[in-house]
């Protein structure tokens, strides 16, 4: 009875945190608690009675009340509702907010003019430096003082005492001698992080907020203030010793990979190409220190101390868990595994069998009491769901695979159960299904086990003697190399990942309701195939409907180049690609979220007048059926030859186009009418769209006078030429690349009949034939206010 009541209270707290996603979520939890109290009140008004026969045969049968109840007392439901209500209030209380002296409060002062204001920020290094994708060094800085560098407009301001953390990036050579707890001064430019401007894009502002950080610093120079100070001891030194020992004989990337499989990728600077390879193949969990490593460590410790007393085993196991937790950096997934490991040790001492489901619920509740914001942390969610799947679903799968040897059945059941419980969240966040993930997990499990066990032994040996750790790590060269090649093989298979598009909230809730029904209700357990069919239909039917009905144009927020994605009943046209960063962080995430697996027509034009573009990166991730290039660049150039070679892999067609040549994709007709400026004309459902490059006022007047610029319904242009073009062409809608326009110009433009949008301010802009233009940032704000 006590256990059942505790479970209800814990679930009330967790649901209260989840209901922070909807308005008045705590009130709804309280209402659910009151409804539960009313529904189960009658159970306690007339408790069932059972007949109890005495031990002696001649005794009379005694009627007693059954003290065990299937459902707790009504007051427990009310208490759970109140706990859920308090959870929502606690969550809001714990949401990070910048303080009065937080350094983010001074960002606008440093960047109040168009000129960049250099500042000097003093503080203490709070993390080991890491390498970013742009090949810069990155670290966290606990700040204490802010100085402005003297500029031409006047003397610098008085130094200010500040607080808070900064996300700092500096040239790579500037971080080679940095380590945690070091006092430094960084010269650079402060900025405030931006929220996601495009669907599917990474929300940098949200990421920093979760780390209790509200500003960043683009550093140029780092000065070490305590050069002669003695290094303070920290767990980072132990971690660094282990990594250095394993990399010494294994090299890169094998060494960092082994270290990441032992300590977790968050504690190790793993190369991005290896990290991306494992994530895309569906093996991201192998790089996250959690339950697998915890189980191995406890298993080894208990085996080594099996001849000692239970208390000694408990002490050694607890010490090992604390050391492992400290080395991995107190990650949520590791904390969950350590709490469950601690519960197992307590059960060992008390000689009681610990219920894994109960310990998982207890671990989740304790962690969310410590940090309620983890309820929306993807790593915490996936770790909790995967462990839940292993506890409640693996036995059922193993039973159904009874015709196989137990070892093989378990090898299949473990990744399958974890996939069942985590796939809906992955679809909700990423919208991609790794096609061979299940098979790869089954095949790679022996290698992952060998590398993890060997890595732990190597780490322990490195703490005693660094050469011994290197020797043990060297033995793992072949298993690690085989694992990398195995992942590469599966990643290069056709259709290695399928984009199905991000599913909606109602879809993920319905799918998890079906999973829970199969878990708890016998009728659904016998008809699990029916539940699977319903779940698959919930994902596939909306995709089919969208592919047959949706027509939408999306103008992505991508700096100084117009990038248009046209979705026409399952066919996709992409106009321009931007630079490599735009392709990787803007276009690909958007197409992935929309469930796009190939580009039917790609139209390239060099709006930025440089050789940097993302077409090659896009081709390596998505097949392009028809590629059209408006360019005076000869076909013999290296860039064009590389594109042609990638196109041939997927039987794509390449065609170079001259000025004035038309491309007809069915729903849109495109034509480059001027290459030097450049100017691209589109005909869409009878509307005239113009995409105009960087153009001067005199050129605008000349083109209008010559009749070279037809009056468009929709105009895209650079911010610098927005005023001249709007006044000359009088479009119904004008879209500029940024909102960096003075107030006087905006006032003049507001008097015109033209509707203005700025991708730098409004984010991506979408249009459908039946609707108006919709901005992504406003739509995201409206969605969050509704949810």
Automatic annotation (TrEMBL):
Signal peptide: none annotated. It comes from the Bacteria. Residues 262-524 form the ComEC/Rec2-related protein domain. It is found in: Cell membrane. The keyword Transmembrane applies. Its main location: membrane. Residues 22-223 form the DUF4131 domain. The chain crosses the membrane at residues 6-39, 283-304, 357-376, 382-398, 427-448, 455-478, 498-521, 528-547. GO terms for cellular component: plasma membrane. It holds the Pfam family Competence. It is a multi-pass membrane protein. Keywords: Cell membrane, Membrane, Transmembrane, Transmembrane helix. This is DUF4131 domain-containing protein.
